[in-house]
Design a protein that fits this description.
This protein is of the alpha+beta class. It is 12% helix and 23% strand. The chain has one domain. The protein has helices spanning 157-160, 185-188, 290-294, 300-305, 316-319, 322-330, 336-346, 353-361, 419-427; strands spanning 18-25, 32-43, 59-65, 74-84, 98-100, 103-105, 111-120, 126-134, 164-165, 171-178, 223-232, 252-267, 273-285, 383-386.
Length: 497
């Protein structure tokens, strides 16, 4: 969650498991769009000596749809290759990986990873844009990786060595970052007993929950591996233009990511394996929390293996979400209006057309004044971005579009958007009046909150990490030495940038 362990099969294959997808107009370069796909969830920063990396046997793709059929026209493919420099040591590194005399010294770095980038065009033509680009080391600690330094001003001295601008105009990065997603997993999966409103929960006759507790960010001290691309808008539109009219259909793109493995994997009995055959999709992700919350457990693996263009199969879970049915039961009697609406859905006289629009078709013009990110009637889980909507650079609202900030989720997704609270409030009925003015949201919708907030720069906000104001936007990965959950307070903080 957002999609960290969302399905039985992929939870056993973390290097192919996508955790989050982001798509937004770059706030510091508004003629470009930034696409980010995160993989390898819930990384303990001190998890050595085999620190985390991408899968050498996984094909990673960030896909873009600019049509109305839910199919991707453009794909950026990433393939990785690991190299062991010194086969006689068990260590990831046997000395500092540090900048010396203005250059990064990699002589003590034993296990390294490199990648290629390929662009697939709408006509199917594939072009290799770059090969042998280097991934950065994991953030091990102040002696091993001394030039990692948390800052909101931009990437640190070490990270800058691994940001590459390609001759074709794309800027790319692939490597470890701090997980920017924030969620109180302990409450969500304990029958939704959100800490700030626990006193309103129906506790089934068990002891009452503590009142007014702050949320606990379950991902506060974990890392992920990010694939990030920043590219001109002209490389994403069907006609090569840079969109300026938010009402125009060609201003909207749909984004998702996939991971694929070859069909056959063989073990040689000596600890080695090889793969053969065509690639088969094993993971995908578009909107946050889609497979996690809206797809039934028995269908989750099928969803991961299917294409967005086939998502009408899973539409019933959107049109009548189980969580929407549970809220009036878990928080009796605080959702009477939603409860009555659910009964009409069961009778076939109503449906959650608001959620279908937000997640499966995009929002048509006229629903939200001055905004649309509609891609047609084909139901497909795509993260839809209207590229003609300017980024909000002053006081962006983490609740995005529902709070009047049209540059935020579900218009794409920025790294700091509070997607959990947005979707909780939407499922609780906040967005039903957009498509059914006869419905009045319950007063309890206003207090539905997981108790976490975020800010692009304020790390005192509950749930925040140190986001960056420039590419790759996700913050410096947590250090294995300074792991927040285990490092004693007496240990001095990490060095200042």
């Amino acid at each position: 969650m957002s999609s960290h362990r969302e399905a039985p099969e992929i939870s056993q294959d973390p290097v192919a498991d996508s955790t989050d997808v982001y798509a937004f107009v770059s706030p510091d370069k508004p003629d470009t769009v930034t696409l980010i796909a995160n993989y390898v969830p819930l990384q303990a920063p001190d998890g050595g000596p085999n620190f985390y990396q991408f899968g050498d046997d996984v094909l990673y793709e960030v896909k873009v749809s600019h049509g109305a059929d839910g199919r991707s026209e453009i794909s950026y493919q990433f393939r990785f290759k690991s190299v062991v420099e010194n086969p006689n040591t068990f260590l990831y590194n046997n000395g500092p990986i540090a900048i010396k005399n203005g250059r990064l010294d990699t002589s003590a770095w034993n296990r390294r990873q490199f990648y290629s980038v390929t662009r697939v065009e709408p006509n199917g033509k594939s072009t290799v844009l770059a090969t042998n680009l280097a991934c950065p080391p994991c953030n091990i600690g102040p002696l091993s990786t001394p030039d990692y330094a948390a800052s909101s001003a931009g990437p640190d001295a070490l990270t800058r060595n691994f940001i590459f601008t390609l001759p074709t105009g794309e800027t790319v990065f692939a490597g470890q970052r701090a997980d920017g997603f924030y969620v109180d997993l302990g409450t969500i999966f304990d029958l939704g007993d959100l800490r700030p409103i626990a006193e309103a929960h129906n506790t089934f006759g068990l002891n009452a929950m503590l009142k007014n507790m702050p949320g606990v960010n379950s991902t506060a001290a974990v890392n992920v591996h990010s694939i990030a691309i920043q590219l001109p808008k002209t490389k994403l539109t069907v006609d090569g233009s840079s969109p300026t009219d938010a009402a125009a259909a060609n201003s909207v793109i749909g984004v998702y990511t996939t991971a694929s493995r070859q069909r056959v994997r063989m073990y040689d009995g000596n600890g080695k394996s090889s793969a053969a055959g065509p690639y088969v999709q094993v993971s995908r992700l578009g909107n946050p929390l889609f497979n996690e919350v809206l797809v039934p457990l028995a269908q989750k693996d099928q969803w991961n293996a299917s294409a967005p263009s086939a998502d009408s199969t899973f539409a019933p879970g959107v049109a009548n979400p189980e969580l929407g049915q549970l809220l009036p039961v878990l928080y009796t009697p605080n959702f009477p209006n939603l409860d009555a609406y659910n009964k009409k859905i069961a009778a076939g006289t109503k449906s959650r057309a608001d959620l279908v629009a937000i997640l499966l078709t995009g929002i048509p013009a006229g629903v939200v004044p001055g905004f649309q990110n509609y891609t047609g009637t084909t139901q497909a889980d795509l993260l839809r971005l209207n590229m003609a909507v300017a980024p909000t650079t002053t006081n962006p609202n983490t609740l995005g579009l529902v709070a009047g900030d049209a540059a935020g989720f579900p218009n794409g997704r920025r790294v700091f958007d509070d997607v959990t609270n947005i979707e909780l409030k939407a499922v609780a009925g906040l967005t039903i009046p957009l498509v059914d003015p006869s419905f009045t949201p319950d007063k309890a919708v206003a207090i539905v909150d997981q108790g976490l907030t975020s800010s692009a720069t304020d790390t005192t906000a509950k749930g925040s990490v140190q986001y960056l104001t420039s590419f790759p936007y996700l913050g410096t990965p947590h250090s294995g030495y300074y792991t927040p959950s285990v490092t004693p307070a007496a240990v001095p903080p990490a060095p200042a940038p």
